[in-house]
Input
Amino acid sequence: MDMAKPVGSEISYVDFSVLTPEEVRKVSAKQITNPTAFDNLGHPVPGGLYDLRLGAFLHNTCATCGLDERYCPGHQGHIELPVPAYNPLFFKQMFVLLRGSCVYCHHLKMRSIDLHAYECKLRLIRFGLLLEASQIDQIHLEESDLEAGEEAEEASNIAEEEEQLSTVSKKDAEKISRSFAKRMTASAESQLKEKRELFVYESIHNAIDEGRTTKSGLNTGTLLEARKAVIKDLERRLVAKPRCENCMMYSPRFRCDGFSKIFANSLSEKQLVNNRVKAVRVPGAANVDIAPKSGSRYVLSSEVREVIDSVFIMEQPAIETLFHSRPYLEDGKPKNVLGDIFFLSVLVVPPTRFRLPQKLGDEVHENAQNELLSRVLATSMQIKDLNEQFLSLQKDAVGAGEERKLVFNRLMNAFVTLQNDVNGVMDETKNQNPANAQTGLPGIKQALEKKEGLFRKHMMGKRVNYAARSVISPDPMIEDNEIGLPPVFATKLTIPEPVTAFNVAELRKCVINGPDKWPGATQVKDESGFVTSLIGMNEEQRKAVAKQLQTPAGSTGDSRGGNNGVVNKQVYRHIRNGDVVIMNRQPTLHKASMMGHRVRVLPNEKTIRIHYANGGPYNCDYDGDEMNLHFPQGQLARAESYTLASTDSQYLTPTSGSPVRGLIQDHLSTGVWMTNKNTFFTREKYQELVYGCLRRHQEDLNTGCFRVRTLPPTIFKPEPLWTGKQVISSVLLNVLPKDVPGLNMKSKNKIKNEYWGEGSHENEVLFKDGQLLCGTLDKSQYGSSKYGLIHAIHETYGPSIAQRTLSSLGRLLTNYEQWIAFTCGMDDMELTTEGNKVRAKIMEKARDAGRKAAAEVTNLDENISVSNPEFHRRLEEVLRDRQKHDILDAVTMSKVNAITSEVVSACVPAGTAKKFPENAMQSMALSGAKGSTVNVSQIMCLLGQQALEGRRTPVMVSGKTLPCFKPLETDARAGGYIENRFFSGVRPQEYYFHCMAGREGLVDTSVKTANSGYLQRCLTKQLEGVHVAYDNTVRNADGSLLEFLYGGDAVDVTRESYLYKFNFFYDNYKALLQRYSPSSIGHLDVDAAVKYSKKYRKALKSQEKLPAWEQSYRRDPTISIYNPAKYLGSVSTRFEDKLDEFIETNKSLFRSHENKSLISSKKFKALMQLKYMRSLIDPGEAVGIIAAQSIGEPSTQMTLNTFHFAGHGAANVTLGIPRLREIVMTASQHIKTPQMTLPLRSDVDDTSADAFCKCITRLTLSEFIDDVTVVETTADPNKAESTRSYDIKLDFFNAKDYKAEYDVTENELERVVAEKFITMLEKEIVTEVRKQQKTVSELADISRGRASEKQVEASAALDDDAMAQKEKQKGKQAASYEEPDEEELEAMREAEKSDSESDLLDSDSDSSSSSDGSSSDSDEGDSIDGSVKKVKKSHGRKLTKKAKDREDGVITAHEFVTGYNFDDKEGRWCHFRLELSGDTQKLLMVNIVEDICKDCVVREVENIGRCLHEEGSRDLVTEGVNFQAMWEHDTFLDVDKISSNDVAAVLRVYGVEAARNTIVNEVINVFSRYAIEVSSRHLDLIADYMTREGNYLAFNRQGIDSCTSDFMKMSYETTCQFLTKAVLNGDREELESPSAKLVIGKLNGSGTGSFDVLAKMPVRAD
Output
């Protein structure tokens, strides 16, 4: 589109509906009847799919419009189908309506009065009247209006008949009788309908009069959700009806086979009797009965269409509200909805230009889409032929029965084939024809969806001209806002520049130079739009064109010359120095991934050159990375690129407000060497350094001379010398404008004072009046660091001065490094002899650290020998238990990490052979140039502990980590602790461990890229329209309100870094005074907000001593009353409190009666209020996209593992991207690791806290068991009643121990064993036996070819859980849908998986039993470590009366128990016998008992697993969430401060505000674990968006479904699904969202698109 020639119309909205067959025929240019496209000569066949009436192609002229293939828009055709076909995209909705319809009375099966209630609700929801819609069910008539006489008797008969026809109980039949007893008469129903209609009418008109709604209705996310809930409930009730409640007749039950066939099942005998009695038939309806007499019957699509059409006519008022989401009036009346929307009788043929043929030599090949359409044509012709043949056979009634039957079957098959062919055209996945399985041709749905679909590839992302792509190379000599462009691009990229009197000379030179010489031009466009190409012209011809640049194209009367004065000629000149281009490197993760750079054409270069400082924003390096360059063509785009998108404006990242651009690597380490106290320069060196880093933009504006200002030397004799600090000060002196006060700043650098020597203050950086007086400069000052030198200059003088400073320092340090060189040698990494001795002495502790940690975990003496058998036994027990193994890893890692830290602190820097700053290795690490102290320590000291997923190296079944180590080795080396260093080399085993840890990082990097990318896409898509309005509110694209003030105070993230640094503002008061110029705010109100603020703060101060719940807010905050953009002094309460506090605590800094030369506190406060006003977020700012990028971009830095806390608790919590997905993407109702944080009361000591932890921790029987013995007695096959018995003995720990540890008595333990454990054991035995029987049955079936009756019964006797799981998995497969993209597959699977399915999968994996190949007759073993011991059975043990009674009770209560006894004296053992049938196969009883011991619960609080108390902490942490149970322990816990990471649980208990805060806190917690800072403003916005409807919505396809923009939903994913919903609801796209505007080519409404600039155009007088 030519922006210079706008059109006078635009698309204002888009309606979604279905074209009727008549409309398709009207817009069709040709009916297609011939499946053949080309004849033998390759010419298009008339009536074929390439008929020229459908458009031009391959140099053929269009027969409809007469244009060639370049200009013909294309014209659609159509195919007439012989029978109506189901629309596969609407099939599910049609089938639901069919099941809910009565085929006899042609009404919906629901009572009309009930259906009318749904109709009224939907009508009210259209206008946004949710409260009134909820009141519909409360409207009823008085009891006197109901007849209870004859109607009650009839209802009783109906209930009796219902009981006979179905298998309902008598109680259910009585309920039915009571419900029908109150059945209304027709007059009563009419009265109730009138009452409802009056209520709806008055509600809507009152709402319109009051301005609460409009005549065209409302459309918000809340209304969409409410409408969806009402329709879902209506469909559920319709489908559940067994018979029609209007005519009381039974319709046949329907079932579908895919999307092509519908079958009707026969009625039962009693249902037929009922129908004969009722015998309802609608006048005019077809006499064909759909219900078959027996079995099932294939229902023709024409028959289904007749039923649907009749139902739509009879129930039109309800249908109209069901399929129109807004009031749709036509001539003042609601527009009728026809049943034709579900059927296709005319198939649209796309224009030729959208399915162009391919020409290879002399052969022309059809488009793949033609094959699908050809199949439809061929099948249609076959149906017509078969129909004619069948009709002819019907006339010949004699001897044609078999043939007629054969033709009829072929005709029915052709109907199904046609339906599948139509399905294939629409959706490939719904085509069940065998031919489609071989070809797999994509349908219309496949052409729309995914990355290669119409929306995402062509509408949302388009290929652009005037762009370039090349490898990037670094260039420290150009400005950091410049881009070095190679000549090959400079002669190809052009821009149209209008010819004026000011640039005509320059443009003439360009025209004369031509297209091949830079700077030249390629084309000239005159006033009429005619383009003259300069390619191929000689110099004389180009000169002739150049001379006519200011000559009008025609005479005065010429139509082309009539535009003179408004439209000039345009020269398409080459890109030149100073032009702006947009640079981009993919992936585009955040705002700074696209920045505007000024062009500098570099001769003889081959690659794009960028400054080192821009590597951070683009996240690029220089090992072959490529970048894209876009050359904006319009003046508006160029203006935005020069200003808003320029690199100068992108110094601070919106993620956290921190600098994102800065110098890197060698610049940083060189800066330390330059600015230390030992660096001096002679006059020549000093002047060369200063002059070499400056550019001519510092020239004197008055004289035009480039003058360099210098400083006097520090040392005058014996020769003048300047320090490195003075060089920095000289650079600042020349970069800053004249008459601007110098910078005053105090900060810290990264290098501590002790590295410089005793008494040094080089860690403190001090600038006074623009001169560096103290400290060295490193990454903290001119790197991408907060509150450094460049950041301070950016805040004080603005972004352009900061850019000049950064560029100048880059050139300065580059030049200086070229003088001195910088290299790292082996001597920089070497320790002294003394240092090596200290290292070796400390490392001796590591050899014993593993044994001490193992002894601590196994509760043995610290000095125990590694050869101790008990130590080995317990250690094996620990290694076999995952939970205990985690504890061992945590304890061992804490001990060896302490040793590692001790070695590093002792050897670096004290033990290094070469000291800092001469040590290049330490210079790089300490200055932040490259590496860190970890890298230094790995090279000089040791590699330390290698971790995999937060644990040590995994242990094999043999007890070894590697084959070279002993089993159960306790040495730290065996667990992955590397004592050696890179300097002296590592052993092969250590190298292997190190590779394992490195590989984990590589895997995480490859996996997290796709997951984090999809996470950011989900966020960006839904938040794309969220912006700041002119009233400072945050709104979505449809105008819905999300926040009253952005972030609570309307401050921009990039402008708040220094907002509370009042000391800095005081020191630079004069410079800020010049920048903000208070004299320019005369148009602002400076009194109203200040006066109100005093009253508000006075009211707050009067209540500050009261508790929060007793305070009353008589006044709203100042910032919520007065717009901070218009009223000076309208600031946030926090800002004003902090400002007043600063002034109060620093009174000596401000003017007083004693010292009147200081700054006035009133003026300083006014300047700070002005600073606040200048820090406000700009209206139109797309804060939604910025928030999405601020979450997505840092997420790429996180790993994907579940991390573990150190310590004995070994509690785990999901972190990283999995946790972000739980919170944001899936809004999981049941997270993987739910936790509660329980604050202790101040009077509760640690001992009581530990005791409380034990009381609420879940206890299982396995924690009481020391040993389990199982003795199996096999059956005697010679005996008739032989049995297989198991003697099981549970040996418990000492009763005193478990009483003290768990507060559980012997009686409580015995009761658990007798009532819970044995019951669970018997149930598990039954399950195992059934599994064995099923296996035997299947084997026998394979061997004999059939299954016996007994085996079939055994197979059918599977337990209910297994069958339910199978059905659920089967249902999951049937309900699955196509995944979005391949890289998003895993994320979407997790997002769509229900929690119940996850639980089933988890329980499935946990309950899988291991196999045992032993043929021994007895199994005995320890349930904890699996060891086996043989014991003797005890026979004839005497039992006390109490024990005997107890045994009798247990035997009576259980099926398999024949003996039971418990140690009543000491509570140390329990013995019982189980007897099974003799033909029972061998059971792995040891494994079964072990599993049941772990599952049998002795004591628990519902949903609570463990409760952990870390040493020194005043908070308890529980695994699991149960707020209500914790409220009962208010004597121990501060219940008002309980928190949880389970957002859904918080929402259910505490409400939406608490859930919103939980989302913010949890996301902060995820990022804080990785030291990533994200502004809380972004998190607040995301949390507000997720809870906008009062519930917890996810950023996935379910969450986006409540958005009002259909185009936004379609361009996200599952395009056809959202398109289908939009069509069936009759939605209107108001084109407010960015996606919708992009689709139709309109300017986005945020950013600079949120306003228009109007210019007064000259009007020519006639």
